[in-house]
Amino acid sequence: MQTVGPIYKEVVVLGCGNTLFGDDGFGTYVAEHLEREGLIPSHVSVITAGTGVREILFDLIVSDVRPKRVIVVDAVDKQRNPGEIFRIDIGEVPEYKVDDFSLHHSPTTNLLKELNDLCSVEVIIIVGQVESIPETVRPGLSDVMKRSVAIAAREVLSACGEGRKARTESSARSEAVRKEQP
Predict the structure, then answer these.
(1) CATH number of the structural domain spanning residue 69
(2) Which residue numbers in the chain have pLDDT < 70?
(3) Which domain holds residue 76?
(4) Domain total for the chain?
């Protein structure tokens, strides 16, 4: 897991999951793909959080400096087509994910809600529908999830830029107006 130093960029991507349990490691593989392919924009920080996402979220909540957006990438079983990439709301995080890897027994969803509601950080959750998660250690993704890594990476990059162009254009217009004023 990376240190939390890069969390001070405008957008933070957290790749979550346990790579020792098959498709559960999906978010981690997506983060590694973004890093390996050099796809990370300068305003974005990608953290391979693995199973340590709660510690990072807690650090973000108590920090004086926060990103504008946090994108969580993870695997879920929502009974959809294996390998399907989609977004879910914080309240849609499945029960079996809520209590994964506790940090002071505070569910991850509570930390995400606090970050979003109380800290004014936009939270986006991008997930991949698992084919299966083994009950015993079995590293590596299923073939369908391997094929979905690049698709999820594109979705993450799209989410990294959402609203950014509009803010840049708005800032440019504001600057032009200021220059025109006496």
Answers:
(1) 3.40.50.1450
(2) 1-7, 94-107, 164-182
(3) 5-180
(4) 1
